[in-house]
Design a protein that fits this description.
Elements (H helix, E strand, L loop, with lengths): L4 H18 L16 H10 L11 H13 L3 H14 L1
């Protein structure tokens, strides 16, 4: 008995799906993905360094200027804002 074309396609799709489920996770998505700490571990590292999260709302133009300057700053945005706040509060 010959199969209909739709049955052949359905069987092929089922076979491909089974192969995809059996395949391993690529390294870029798995455990070897850059060694970035999860959120809890990052919070632990930050608190050990004496860092406290501080959120505030700033005008978009100011944020744009901060990001431009932070690109050339060795410590990034966090270090740049820390420096600016220390200078202004001194």
């Amino acid at each position: 008995m010959s199969m209909k074309k739709t049955d052949l396609v359905r069987n092929l799709a089922a076979r491909l799906e089974g192969q995809m489920k059996g395949a391993g996770v690529p390294g870029r998505f798995g455990q070897g993905a850059g060694g970035v700490a999860d959120k809890r571990e990052q919070r632990r590292i930050d608190s050990a360094a004496g860092l406290v999260p501080f959120a505030c709302k700033l005008p978009a133009e100011l944020v744009k200027r901060l990001n431009e300057r932070a690109a050339g700053h060795e410590g990034g945005v966090n270090a740049l804002v820390t420096e600016a706040l220390q200078k202004s509060l001194a």
